[in-house]
Design brief:
Strand 1 and strand 2 form a beta hairpin. Helix 9 packs antiparallel against helix 10. The radius of gyration is 21 Å and the shape is elongated. It is 72% helix and 2% strand. It is mainly alpha-helical.
Amino acid sequence: MTRQRRLHREVMAAFAGEIVGGQLVPGEALPNEVTIAERFGISRGVARESLRALDERGLITVRHGTTTIVNPRAHWDLFDPDVIAASLAGAGAEHLLTEYLECRRIIEIEAAGLAAERVTDDGLGALEARLAEMEAALALRAARAQEEAYHQADVAFHTALVELTGNLALLALVRRVDDALLAARYPLARPAYRRTRALPEHQAILEAVRAGDPDAARGAMRAHLDTVEGYLREHARKVARAA
């Protein structure tokens, strides 16, 4: 990464944090390029690129020749990794995680049922391979490497499940949120429970799909997401105590 790109990302991240954290409120005007350049010790060109990056993520609206305005949350790209990172670092983390969990319930419970109805040998093989990768990740000794490998395999399992539906529009939607799911899962990670809860729950989903039982597949996915919701409530209580 070039120095200029690193600087523009640092400035963009700083403003994203202030917007998501509520220090900059919807309708408020951001400083102009000259003021931003002076504040961060950067060139006007880098300041301009930082504002453009914020605009692309829906955090602000750049009104050329006038002012730059902070947008309300409804305009933010909540699936952008930089917006997610800023959101998870602030007081709105619980709200965002709740929204992602609702998205997963809407998409994945029905997707599990469709996958069981439309299961193929190749699709089932892919699902089995992803579960094997989740198991293999737990054998890694380095904690960081295990986390990365496990989360990647976990998301890949859920993507493979959607692939089994044969619905390309649904698959395109899920691929759009993959980065969001990866980022949003870390606060809810429970490594100690993976062998006793997470893997058996994923195994139950796999077995229901293998059996071609849509109701059982939906039930298994619902049970898994109930567990994740429990982790969310636990995370919320921890954040509240820390505050």
